[in-house]
Each structure stands twice: as C-alpha cells, then as structure tokens.
Amino acid sequence: MKFEKKDILGIKDLTVDEINLILETAESFLEISTRKIKKVPTLRGKTIINLFYEASTRTRTSFEIAAKRLSADTINISSSTSSVVKGETLIDTARNLEAMNPDIIVIRHSAAGAPHLLASLIKQSIINAGDGAHEHPTQALLDMMTIKERKGKISGLKVAIIGDIEHSRVARSNIYGLSKMGARVVLAGPATMLPRNIEEMGVDVYTNLKDALIDADVVMMLRIQLERQKQSIFPSLREYSQHYCLNRNNIKLAKKDVIVMHPGPINRGVEISPDIADDPSYSVILDQVNKGVAIRMALLYLLTGGGE
Amino acid sequence: MVETKNVKVVMDKDGIDRCLTRIAYEILEKNKGMENLVLVGIRTGGVYLSERLQKKISGIEGGKIPLGILDVNLYRDDISASNKKQPLGETKINFSLDDKIVVLIDDVLFTGRTIRAAMDALIDFGRPKMIQLAVLIDRGHRELPIRADFVGKNLPSSLWEAVRVDLVEKNSVDEVVIEEGT
Q1: Which tens digits make up the pLDDT trace of B60-96?
Q2: ipTM reported for the complex, 2 dp
Q3: A34 and chain B: CB distance < 8 Å anywhere?
Q4: Interface of B with A in 90-129 (CB under 8 A)
C-alpha cells in the first residue's frame, strides 16, 4: 500500500490501512535510534520547519530529532521569538515561510483548525503537532504503537482515558484512533470536564474513576491543563486528586497486566501518584516518548515521498 | 500492460540449489573458512538466499555464522524522486560489523545502485574488514563501478526484459525467469 496523503491533520481523516502503514513503518524506524550512528541519509536536502505557537518540550524535540536522524535540515520557530510578537498573522507567516520552499511544516497552535487553514493555503505538507483542544495525531499514533507493542494488538482492548477530556486534544485523537482500530474506549472525569454529547463518538462515559478502571487493559491519564482553565472547573487540585488520581489502590480494579500511559508533562500527585508513574511494571510513559521519535520519522518519510 | 508476456524459465529449483552450494564453497574457499565471516541479506530476495547460504555453510563447516537483514530503502539515491515510498522493512543486524568479513547477498545484480546503498548502510553500522558480494544472477547493465565476488549465473539480458527470481519462501516456487517487456 502506498501513502497518498499530503498532510497529517488529524486521526479522524486517516483510514485503518493508513494507520497500520504508519505504525508498521515506525516499527522499522525504531532500530535506527539504537545504532551507534543514529542517522540515515534519506531526507538529505529536505527542509522541515517546526512552527510552535505553544510551549512544548517533548513534541518539538521529538520532531527535531526525528528529522535530524533522517538527515533533514530543521528550523525551529517559536512564537515568542518570531514576528508574531510584531503582529504578523498566521496566514502571512505561513505565506512567507512557503516562499522559502521548505518541504514540511510542523505546526502547533492554540487555535483548533490552524493546521487545516495552512494546509488549504500552501502547497507544502503540514503536520499537526497539536491544535487547541482539537487533535494531536502524532501523540495518538505513538500511543497506539506503544499499546500494540505491549499488548500485541489494539482490537478488543478496553482503554480507559481519565481526566480533562474537554480540553484534551490527546483524548480526542486517541478516541478516533483507538475506536477505528477496534478498541473499546471508556472515559472518566468530573462532569465539568466531559464534553456534551461525547457519547456520540462511540465511547462509554463515567464520572466515577473506579467504574472506568474495572478490567481495563490500558489506562491513559490526562494532564490537568492549568494553563487552559480560564474559569475554575473544579474546586481545588487537592479535591480533584482525591477523586481522580490513579494510585496503588484503585489500579487494582484494572486487569493485572494493565499498562499506564500519560502524554506528559506529568503533574505528580495530581492525576497520577508518583509511585505508579515511576513503576516500570505499570508505567510505559518513557516508552511512549521513545516511540514518538519513530512515529515522527515514519510520517516525515511517508510525506516527503511525493513526486513533482 | 498487456498480459501477453513472453516468460522464459532460465533456472529451476535444482539449478538454484546447485548455484548456492557452489557459492557456499567459494565463500569458504576465498575466506579460508568461516572465521570472522558474517552474512547480510538485502531485503527481500537476498534475505531468503542468505538464510539458505547460512544453512549450507553450516552443513559444510559445522557451527553457525551470524546473519543480518538489511533494508536499503533509506539509502536509495532515487528516494526523493520516487513517487511514493515503498513500505519499509526492518533492518536487523544484531552483531558488530567491526573487523568482520561481510558477505552481502542479493538475488539479482543489475545497475549496482542497490549495492551502493547497501554498502553505505553497512558502513553506518561499523567498519567491516572487507565487504564481498554474492548474487544469484548477474544480468549486466551496471551504472556504477561494482562487481560481484560470487555469481550464481551470468545472464546477459536486454534492458526491456525483466529478470525475476521466485523463491519458495514467498512465491511458492523456486525458479529464475526472464519476462519480455512490450
């Protein structure tokens, strides 16, 4: 099968075959990061711009390492040091970058749909590295890759996603992806953090953490995004953690071989207790980060294949 | 394309087996045994041939020599021009290549570009003492200064012909055929 997409904007637009192709390609790329010389010449002469309008350590570093291991040239632009502070609009910035002929633009933006707008305006490939509370496709892909490696499959698993679903692009992309791949997704969080009509995405929704954890194969804890909370949607962090923090006790409700995931950065003691986050018999959090580089290498590789 | 291709079988199961037996002996003769010898098969045809050669060499000398698998797609010189990428296979070389004699194995030697890519890839894994090349078929038309150390059969062909090596492991039959293009 050949990959025909120009952009990676969201998991919603990907078919099961495309997701499988990306995951399989990424598995082949894992090996490169274990070599003594961690570089292949594949994307020599290609230019990749990382355009980050929001803070990021993991995702930006991961994209940059992925590009460099494929020998592409990378340029990082963050909004604080760019002409955004002079008032340039996103469209103008993009048109100017386009005129410098990069091959791929990776964008993170606080506004949902920003990558889609760019993709419709400029001819280069766009990869969405997170747009508002909408989608974060590369995170969902690396999550699926981690699950597939640990569990040998995705189909038929029960995956519980816990926390601030409303503000979470990671949750949204994972719901699309995991459902497409045949997993059963259940959500839990305070009612104020559950989007209205979320059941329409084909998921079961609980307001009690314990109900969601029962017999789960995978538990995905979401970060409480303090920066996105304009008005307080729960009384205090302390109260939140009393009801929704994953700990030694409540994890026993899940299957014995449950794996615990977190997209990072972790608020220790808020959504996940430190002893769970650091326990290698449960936590695959650093494994997720490791898979992230391979997923991004796979996407850069697949997207730059296009002819003239 | 029209389905009226002229297909000619140029080597059958026994022929392939005899070629591999001879190549196994030649590899051992040239290298005076199997010390420091490793095999690396190029995906996909070369992998099956290298597995067979590994067995044959074990049968002659006893013991087992290391076997690696190489996908050269990431090193191809036509990768940015190619329309859409081939699905990538796994590269698996679980041993050091430093100071080893590496025998690269492929099914058909044609322009030499695959071998160029494979040599670049090998050198990223270490510094072999020597790289040798074994192929089942050499069909000519080299575009790079590359030649094989061990050849099953020289098969002069024209550019509009296609040489195909079918192996039981993936095509349910062992044979080498020439297909005439139109």
Answers
A1: 999 899 999 999 999 988 776 555 566 788 899 999 9
A2: 0.80
A3: no
A4: 90-92, 120-121, 124-126
